Amino acid sequence: MRSDGEPAFAVWLTGLPASGKSTIARALAAELALKGVRAAVLESDAVRREINPQPKYDDAERDAFYATLACLARMLVLHGVPVIVDATANRRAYRDRARTAIPRFLEVHVRCPLAVCQARDPKGIYRRG
Predict the structure, then answer these.
(1) Buried b (16+ CB within 10 A) or exposed e, 48-78
(2) For 16, which DSSP code?
(3) How far is residue 59's CA from residue 77's CA, in Å, rounded to a whole number?
(4) 0.85 surpassed by pTM
C-alpha cells in the first residue's frame, strides 16, 4: 500500500526508440507528484547502463534485461511504490511477462510516426540500419 492507503501500480510505456517514452514517463511522474503520489521511474536506458555498461543487445541479453526490469517493477509495486517503466520492449513476450508478474499493471503504447523517431534518434539507432 502507498502511504495514502491506495495500492501501488505499474505503468509500462512501450514504443519505438525515440518515440517519447522517457519524456512521457517524467511528465507522468511529475503530474502524479502534484496529486501526492510519488512514483519511481525505471528508465530502461539508465537501468541497462547499471546492469551492463557495454550491452550487446542480443536475444539472450534482451531477455534477461526485460526479465530484470519486470522483477524490479514488481518488487517496487509489492512494496507500495508506484512505478513507471519506460522501455521499448519490442517483443510481446517481454510485455506479457511483465503483465503476468506485476500487480495492477497498465501497458501504454506510445505511438509516434517512424519519421519523427528517425529525426530525433539521439542514440543513432536508426542510422545503424
Answers:
(1) beeeeeeeeeeeeebeebbeebbebbbebbe
(2) S
(3) 27
(4) yes
Rounded CA-CA distance 105/74 in Å is: 9
> In this structure, are residues 125 and 19 in contact, taking their beta carbons and an 8 Å threshold?
no
**HEC per residue, 76-108:** HHHCCCCEEEECCCCCHHHHHHHHHHCCCEEEE
Q: How many helices (H) and strands (E) does the chain have?
A: 5, 4
pLDDT in tens, 18-41: 999 999 999 999 999 999 999 999
Q: Which three cell numbers stand for residue 124?
A: 543513432
What size, in residues, is the chain? 129
What are the grid coordinates assigned to 43, written together? 528508465
pLDDT digits (tens, 9 = 90+) for 39-70: 999 999 999 999 998 888 899 999 999 999 99
What contacts 32, CB < 8 A, 6 or more positions away? 38, 39, 82
Q: Could you tell me which CATH class the domain 10-120 is placed in?
A: alpha beta
